[in-house]
Amino acid sequence: MILILEQLLNGLQYGVMLFLLAAGLTLIFGIMGVINLAHGSLYMIGAFAGTWVATTTGSFWLGIPAGLIAAALVGFLVEATVIRKLYARDHLDQVLATFALILIFNQMIILIFGRQPIFTPLPEVFYGSIEIIPGLFYPPYRLLIIAVGLLVAVGLYFLINRTRVGMLVRAGSTNRDMVRALGVDVRLLYTVVFGLGALLAGLAGYMTGPILAVQVGMGEDILLATFVVVVIGGVGSIKGAFVAGIGLGVVDTMLRAFLPTILRGFMAPSDADAIGASVSSMGIFLLMAIVLLIRPKGLFAAGG
Amino acid sequence: MKLSSVIKASVVAAFAAATPALAEDALKIGVITTLSGPAGYLGQDVRDGLQLAIDMEGGKLGGVPVELVVEDDGLKPGNGRQIAEKYMNDEGIKLLTGIIFSNVAGATVPDIVDNGAIYISPNAGPSNLAGKGCHENYFVVSWQNDALHEAAGAAAKKLGYTKAFALAPNYQAGKDAIAGFKRTFGGEILGEVYTQLGQTDYSAEMAQIRAANPEVVFQFHPGGMGIAFLRQYQQAGLLGTIPMVLSEPSTDAVVLNAVGEAAVGITATAHWNRDFDNESNKAFVAAWDEKYDRPITYYASQGYDTGLLIASALRQTGGVDDIDALREAIRKADFASVRGEFKFGKNQHPVHNWYQLDIVAGDDGKPVAVTKEVLLENYGDSYADQCEM
Q1: Do B258 and A260 lie within an 8 Å CB cutoff?
Q2: B176 and B293 belong to one structural domain
Q3: Residue A248 lies in a domain
Q4: Percent composition of chain A: helix, strand, coil (DSSP 3-state, to 5)
Q5: Number of domains in chain B
Q6: Contact flag B207-A10 (C-beta cutoff 8 Å)
Q7: pLDDT in tens, B154-212
Q8: Interface pTM (ipTM) of the complex?
Q9: Which domain holds residue B335?
Q10: What pTM was estimated for this model as a whole?
Q11: B195 by DSSP, 3-state: which?
């Protein structure tokens, strides 16, 4: 029981991380119609910039604004110089251009920080694990990630549903051309959305630094899962990204944790381990296939 | 028009700057290595170690002026093969080295040796090229892949552990790692978990380890995966509760630096360590520290050893025109390896010692690997007997 609860928390933590990345990606895809493969690079930039400031100043907390600002600035820059030229082009051109951005950013990080992964400090308070309920020990840093992720989700909910910008975002993801026809400055809206997406990616990057490795190419590892979240959740839907992110995080963690053990019940251990590992690595893609079979546009597709 | 001429001019300038004092007749050594992506530091260290050996002899190896030709394989077997063919056919290079990863080596090495060129591996030592697939033109300076993990198994056994939990990514090298560990460990394996290649979150695995409660954990996760694993192991409160024994790739200096105090207390195994007390190693470490502002890894030591081996052979032959003579000269392994005793086994893979290292906190709190004792003496590999040469 405690093991299941612990894995649920793990799934939740992985899920909110995916949500932070997917929220930006789904808005960019849904509103601007741009497939941004370089979203993982913004995640990497947030991680490197934040970690660099944290190591230089010795303060973990100062790293947060640094990571956010760096990712958002680079996001604005990329939008203004590259993405803006791609709105009218087809998806293949966008994939090509943003893939080139991945290579450029990876090489730039190598030039600045070198090829070696860098050390990410963690404040003393987050060392070890705390007992949440009797018998369940959990690393406090992961709880922080869950809390930050949920806070961002609430914040985004208010931003999207209660503000004028949010209204435009919603309108934009439902019918882009109509928004433009009504005289809204779409270009500004696009820049804001892209910057917001970059900001969230930077936050995700910096927050995962102490758990993972801050290194070149770290964005590509998580990009695939992020796209799966976007597709399952429905392109352009923040709500979809949230539900799909958490769902995917939990399903992925549960499969990895329990499938081999369940399979061991009725087959040889070596077969169970091999099949368990293979099926659980396919898990999120199977889930995507099933969801698309039932709802071809994803769970909460904007624009119907 | 203007832009393209500017580019052309700067390209010409860059090349002119990069190749200032190369003698026309410098012997070219072809280096195929991995420089891009997260694993790029491995290739960078091998290349720089090799270059260091050349620089320390004033641009020569064994008295022969040499020049390194370096290209990035991008961790793609197809690229490695293409680069090798270009080196051999277009540039007439007869001595090649540099490959980091076994999958690249598997696709590239047979092509090189069949073409009559010599290949000296500074890192990858896949089993299929060590046993039946061995070749007289193929030498390995580093180790045979399985031996890395056999050393870890031997360490776990020597420390008296009988129940282990083993984890590795679900790909060939991961399976070989666990197989190698089991071969020398001999105890009971409570759980064998295959993680996904490129996995970032190991919380599910941590819970499984805690539930199985083994006496020791063995895990092999190269590069960033290993860093994530060690940090999460500490954050899950397992470090200090369940001991961990690791093979060499999991504890190179770069990994230790990135992991920080989460590595302190781990038992590591290695064939080389920075603190080895021999003349050759002292000279190497001092030269590295003077030239580079980054931690020295065992990859660098292997690149350097490759340089010394080539130097020892060229000193005897004076060049690469007589491949048979060169091969014989390399086989003698008449050089002072930074790891101490070194000789080639029957399959031209190393026979050398493996050591147990303890990861302790250094003066600045950062983890340092300290050599404890010899674990396996004059150890070759499990495939040499299958090699008919």
Answers
A1: no
A2: no
A3: yes
A4: 75, 5, 20
A5: 2
A6: yes
A7: 999 999 999 999 999 888 788 889 999 999 999 999 988 888 877 778 888 888 898 88
A8: 0.75
A9: 24-143+277-344
A10: 0.82
A11: strand
